[in-house]
Amino acid sequence: MTTFAADQILSEEGAPRVRFAARERRGALLGLSFLQLMVIGAAVAILLITLFVDVNAIWVLLPICTVICFFAVATYRREALLIIAVQAVRYGLRSTAGQTKFRRDVWMRVTVASLNIGHAAQAAAAPIVTSRFLLPGALGDVQIVQIPGAGAFIYNARGRLASVTVRVGSRAWALRDKGTQEGAYDGFVEWLSSLENLPGLRETSIRIRVDRAASNELRDYLVDREYEHQPQVSPELRHEYWTLTQAASKSSMGFSNFVTLTFDTGILNSAIRDAGRGLTGLAAVLKERVAGIETAMEHARLTPAGWLDSDELDELLAVASDPIAAAGRRTGSPNQADLTPQSPPPVMAIDETWDALRVDESWHQTLWVAEWPRTDVRTGFLEPLLYAGDATRVITLQVRPIATHTALAQLNRAQSDMETAATIRLKLQSRIPLTHIREEENLAIREHDLVDGFGDVQFRGFITLSAESRDALAKARTDIEQASHPARLMLATLSGQQAAGFVTSALPVPLEGE
To answer: Whose CA is closest to 148, among 258, 283, 259?
Structure first.
């Protein structure tokens, strides 16, 4: 969790610099999570009960309980072994139940004629469920709902979540100006602080897609000019031109930016009821929220480029699920005349392994940011990840607003926990490490920021890599790991959670219980 303030340190180039608060102790008590405390408490309770039942049995259970307590507090690469074991057991159960491998219809089209809308006057304004998308494994399914005259939203009925996705752009050339840099930074900070005041907002996901073979503009331009002016082009010249553009497209990368807003419909119940109930009321509320968030984006120097409709969401889901096949559809063949986007394939084969996910022709691997930079970094510190290698990737930054009273309560608990840990170390005549001191300093800075009125948010970072084979995926991971060092990030694989991680990172789909 990090608080944002308007004060920033300017580098020699004039770019603002930021620092992420250190979070060494993420547990409920003395750096231990609730699950770890439960296991340790159960082991101690067994020993106490044994003392009253059979004192001699204590010598048998004592080594066992000692091993259990050691296993509960031990870590591997700064992650609790107990948590890793729980994930392994969960993956094993899903694999046994057949939830890691399946071939089925993923898209289910819904025609307007099949809907029981009611009166004709309501049909013109009522939102329309255009399709359903089945998520991998046991994650359930979601509906894509089109709002007439506006965009579409994805509705997760089981999780009572709804998300809208807006395509955004930015004027990169304008950010060379020092004053514009500072204005963009201040606007972004204000936007993050304002998320707390947006009722029902659960999280905001900022995604940057980097796709291969995206430079077909020259070929498209030639086809358009042929239809418009009917020039006399020989087949030999056409084939040579296509060969050159196809060779260039293999080494080119295309960038697209999206912002996904996820709302909790349970919190919005009263507003939905006042706006007409059901999907109609939800659509009205979401239209109001999107209008407000677009204005806030403009203050942060972002350019909203349109609220995605149902067809665009279907295409985005298809491209994200199988970017290799999508790249083939984009490049097409030299004689291909129809360049309109193809409908997403309804049937998909999905195989989930411990550390990867395969969807039809594409292999995916999702990494998460286990460690954010500990020192001051410039605002563009993620830039090396965008240009690392030539594999398709999605870089996702999720921001969850935290109410001020909740943030203050968490801060007080963390400070009390730090003081208790320091007292125990002093009684044991153990030194207080520098990490402990740095975190205490960060807690004090967060408290000042919260008291001064700045918002508190929680960050989660994900990177999904996509390739055509296991070997290409391994190369892509090597490239992205090398790029993470200058960005001062520590990346880790989502072991046993690749399906959920892929949906969270690459797809604009709201998930329950994230």
So the answer is: 283
Please tell me the predicted confidence (pLDDT) of residue 191. Answer: 75
CA 342 – CA 355 distance, rounded (Å): 31
Closest CA to 143 of 374, 313, 396: 313
> By C-alpha distance, which of 32, 301, 305, 48 is closest to 151?
305
Crossing angle (nearest 10°) for helices 34-53 and 81-96? 100
Q: In 3D, which of 71, 40, 8, 102 has the Cα closest to residue 347?
A: 102
How big is the chain by its Cα radius of gyration, in Å? 26
User: What secondary structure letter does DSSP report for 354?
Assistant: S
Residue 164, pLDDT score? 94
CA distance 282 to 12: 48
User: Do 29 and 18 touch, CB atoms closer than 8 A?
Assistant: no
Give the three-state DSSP class for 483: helix
pLDDT tens per residue across span 446-490: 888 888 887 788 889 999 999 999 999 999 999 999 999 988 898
pTM: 0.81
Gap between the Cα atoms of 117 and 505, Å rounded: 34
- Please tell me whether residue 110 adopts helix, strand or coil conformation: coil
Token pair in block for residue 329: 């559809």
What residues pair up with 134 in beta bridges, in sequence order? 141
Cα atoms found within 13 Å of the Cα of residue 505, Cβ hemisphere only: 27
Give the bridge partners for 205, in sequence order.
Answer: 260, 398
Long-range contacts of 270-275 (CB under 8 A, 24+ apart): 271/199, 271/200
Q: Which residues, other chains included, contact 330 with Cβ-Cβ below 8 Å and sequence gap of 6+? A: 213, 214, 216
Decide: 306 and 167 in contact? Cβ < 8 Å: yes
Tokens of 148: 């007439």
How many Cβ atoms from other residues are within 10 Å of residue 225's Cβ? 12
Q: How far apart are CA 362 and CA 326, in angstroms?
A: 10
Structure tokens at 26: 């993420």
Q: Which residue has the tokens 């022709």?
A: 361
3-state SS assignment for residue 204:
strand
Report the amino acid identity of residue 337: A
Per-residue HEC secondary structure of 310-341 comes to HHHHHHHHHHHHCHHHHHHHHHCCCCCCCCCC
109 Cβ contact partners less than 8 Å away, ≥ 6 residues apart = 130, 131, 346
The 3-state DSSP class for residue 467 equals strand
Q: Which two tokens stand for residue 431?
A: 């030194």
